Amino acid sequence: MVGVSCLYKDYQLECNTMNDFPDNFIFGTASAAYQYEGATDVDGRKPSIWDTFTEQHPEKIEDGSSGKIADEFYYLYRSDIVDKLKVMGFDSFRFSFSWSRILPYGTMNGGENKKGVQFYHSLIQTLIDNDLFSIGGYEDGEYAPGRCSHYAGNCTSGNSAIEPYLVMHHILLAHAEAVDLYWNQYKVADSWMFIYPKGIEDLVMYVNENYNNPTMYITENGVQDPSVPEDKIRIKYYRRHLWHLLQAIKMGANVKGFYAWTLLDDFEWSSGYTLKFGLYDVNRKTMKRTPKASVDWFTIFLKPEPKIVDYGKLASSSLLSGA
């Protein structure tokens, strides 16, 4: 079992690893362009809806911030991938494209921004050079201009190829209904929003049993934890969710991958930078990345073989708590 059935004595802890999951199971981290990249007015990029919204209505963001700087991933992506993602042992990185960087005027007639496309080409090539599986938002260049053809053709897989064209209308309708329901019935009593690890097992098994067991990827899963750098909540969260996911797989669910949200603390929309979802803390003034205890945990979990680790020397001694 994953990280839950652990034997410990005098801070010596032996945990199982990713080896408990099926062969070729993918472990990765997820990101999003506006939340990570920054450089919103650099190299031909034009304002997106969120640029305009945060500039005109900073009062709508909890800390008055925006994604103008974010994590400066636009400049620091190589070190984030090579020195962090790869070193930890992840297989994959999920990212999205900033269309205001690729098509700054909103249409093909307005012209492609070659510098923007080149950024994504370089990002994808960095992943490939480091044996990391890249997953973006589209299946092939037919749906995303220049994405897997022309001078930017290296992304090995996509995610919901025609999603924006086929389902965005219904997604927006569903979101509108959910927002209305939330504000009218639940806002004053949101204590129901609690962590329930078995939920991931239940949901996966529901899809398995009701939709002919399709191939599934958990493309985003995580929790905000203010206990920097101890990460007591986050470590327990991942331990339990991965254990329950494994139970679903053992019962036949066709799950092929799991993506943690997220590698870095980032811009969390209307919450600004007040929520801490990252495995790494990001200093908002210096952009320095500092590993949290969850980095230690994932590094050990993703080792190809189990090992004995002295957690007395690690900040992640919180691993010993919980079941």
Describe this structure in words.
By secondary structure, this protein is α/β, with parallel strands linked by helices. It has one domain (7-161, 194-320): Glycosidases (TIM Barrel). The protein has helices at residues 33-36, 49-56, 73-88, 99-102, 114-129, 163-166, 168-186, 198-210, 232-250, 293-301, and strands at residues 7-9, 12-14, 26-30, 92-94, 133-135, 216-221, 255-260, 280-282, 289-291, 308-310. Strands 5-4-3-7-6 form a 5-stranded parallel beta sheet. Strands 1-2-10 form a 3-stranded antiparallel beta sheet, with no helix packed on it. Helix 3 (73-88) runs parallel beside helix 5 and helix 8 packs parallel to helix 9 (232-250). The N and C termini lie close together (12 Å). Residues 1-15, 138-153, 158-171, 186-190 and 311-323 have low confidence and may be disordered.
In spatial order, strands of the major sheet run 5-4-3-7-6
Query: Class in CATH?
Result: Alpha Beta
In CATH, the topology is named TIM Barrel
The percent of residues in helical segments reads 25-40%
Largest sheet: 5 strands, parallel
